[in-house]
Structures
1.
Amino acid sequence: MTVNLHSRYKEPTLSLPGQRNYMGTSLDNLFKIREAGSTVRTEIIAGITTFMTMAYIIFVNPAILAQGAQMNFNAAMVATCLSAAVSLWDS
């Protein structure tokens, strides 16, 4: 087993003898992640974080609106989902 520390700006990679990181290489080639100054690991963590945040907001925001503004919970959930979708439309 080899631990390769490229530099302080690149993340360490862990590989077994004879193995290559094909998934990271494929994603990097497809999305040009290194050219943008990031790494595959950073982008995957950012995606998971964004998903978890949106999943949290979809349930918490309607609960707040239903309790504080006396809105229907289901209507507030639909409005939250639609506003999230519309906000991503132009991105």
Note: Residues 2-89 form one domain.
2.
Amino acid sequence: MSNAMRRRDYSATAAKRFFRPLFETLEHRLALVVAVVSEMIAGSSGIGYYLVEMQYALRPDLMYAAVMYLAITGYAVNRLFLVAEARLIPWMGKT
């Protein structure tokens, strides 16, 4: 094996060890949930606060619209991370 191939192999292994925990952990998935729940509990603005306000105002249409907004945002963030993983470390999905 040549030195260039060894360096490339080592850099690929190092990148795997560095980037994989970023994408495997739940932090990026839970960040949105934690932000919304904290707004629901102690916030005076934000989508979590709006969700609770619409619940108390007996406006289920706006409450469910806020829930759908959160679902779409969560899905978009997850897709963004998957695309970033595919572009930044394409060898991760390959065995």
Note: Residues 40 and 48 are 4 Å apart (CA to CA).
3.
Amino acid sequence: MFIGFTENYISNNYQKKIVGYQNIIEKRENDMLEKADYLIQLHSELKKRCENENIKMFEINSDYEAEIEAAYKFIDNKINLLK
């Protein structure tokens, strides 16, 4: 399972929400994330790989808090299946 951002989300939230919420390790290790276009490319490639490998991918498009809930529910369901 992967979680990514759509081009729409990256374009509309790059500076304030993506760069603004990076933790110190991400800032140190991922200088390439300084460019929104590069991040859009990475997420597009990840989505294609997930589709090709039949791996579940959740995409955040506009409302991070609301949309991440689907990923949390997916994880909870997988955990419940293991019980």
Note: Residues 64-82 form the longest helix (19 residues).
